[in-house]
Design goal:
The chain is an all-beta fold. The chain is built from one helix and 23 strands. It is globular and about 45 Å long.
């Protein structure tokens, strides 16, 4: 059996009235050459471009993608960064935040978020980042437990002027947790927000749309579930303060349109439109 991994971009429409997920379609495949985006794991929409990055082991680069042609038009290197396991990217009015937060084994002690000035980003193809380092306040066991720990995360959103929110992947326990992270460079110990999200899937990306005041999460069902690799979207709204799972949480399956895929990232374009990335698999059986 052979699995071929493709990176795709989708459009996600949210109807203003009923706020239902609809009109989901493939827009274009991310290029494999000359810029190899075979493992795109985070996206934002900024300056009328999609900006993305590769997953663990990739170069410390951000790639601008033209949304009409699907081609990479510009590459920016973060000079003082290393891509240990970059999993998401988010932004606010003045900064871009790149999340080196992947922790499949649960044993990392170097988790961090790179903070890049948009002014520097637009002015040069090489930038330096401030560093927001963190650990989890209630983690006492740092032994390696691959895909079987509570300390992995692949989703980060900009929430307000002062804070980011990191969202756990949920390998264990059936609950996804949010963690408030200061936007000020420094080292922090994170505690979970009061309300977890009861969720049996794996969360791989998120975006907070300040225009609609809704949080969207993407992910997929685990390989051990009866229907593995089925993509979904969570919509979280009407929550209290920054406790983002305290309101109404609605999950929508995308399996009727895109089955057997790993949704990886999501970003808002405006109040009702979103881009997502997904890894699509085709399987050939060799006799």
């Amino acid at each position: 059996m052979r699995i071929i991994c493709l990176i795709l971009v989708f459009v996600l429409g949210i109807l203003t009235g009923s706020s239902q997920v609809n009109d989901i379609k493939e827009k274009f495949a991310l290029p494999k050459s000359p810029d190899n985006l075979s493992e795109s794991s985070g996206i934002i929409f900024f300056n009328n471009k999609v900006i993305t990055h590769n997953d663990s082991g990739g170069e410390s680069k951000l790639y601008e993608v033209d949304v009409d042609t699907g081609l990479v038009t510009r590459t920016v290197t973060i000079a003082n960064a290393k891509n240990v396991d970059w999993e998401d990217i988010t932004h606010d009015e003045h900064y871009i935040y790149v999340a080196d937060i992947g922790n499949n084994s649960g044993n990392r002690t170097d988790l961090k978020i790179y903070k890049i000035s948009k002014t520097s980003y637009l002015a040069s193809t090489t930038v330096n980042a401030e560093i927001i380092a963190f650990s989890y306040s209630n983690q006492v066991d740092f032994s390696s437990k691959v895909n079987n720990n509570a300390w992995d995360a692949e989703a980060l959103v900009s929430f307000d002027d002062s804070n980011l929110i990191l969202i756990s992947k949920n390998w264990t326990g059936g609950a996804t947790k949010g963690y408030l992270v200061s936007k000020t460079a420094g080292k922090y110990s994170l505690s979970p927000l009061a309300t977890p999200l009861s969720n049996s899937g794996l969360i791989t990306g998120a975006t907070y749309n300040m225009l609609s005041e809704k949080l969207f999460l993407v992910g997929y069902t685990s390989l051990t579930s009866p229907a593995p690799l089925q993509p979904f979207v969570w919509k979280c709204e009407d929550f209290i303060g920054n406790d983002v799972f305290s309101g109404t949480n609605t999950q929508t399956s995308l399996s009727s349109t895109f089955s057997f895929e790993q949704t990886e990232a999501i970003t808002f374009v405006n109040e009702n439109n979103y881009f997502m990335t997904s890894e699509a698999f085709s399987v050939s059986i060799i006799c």
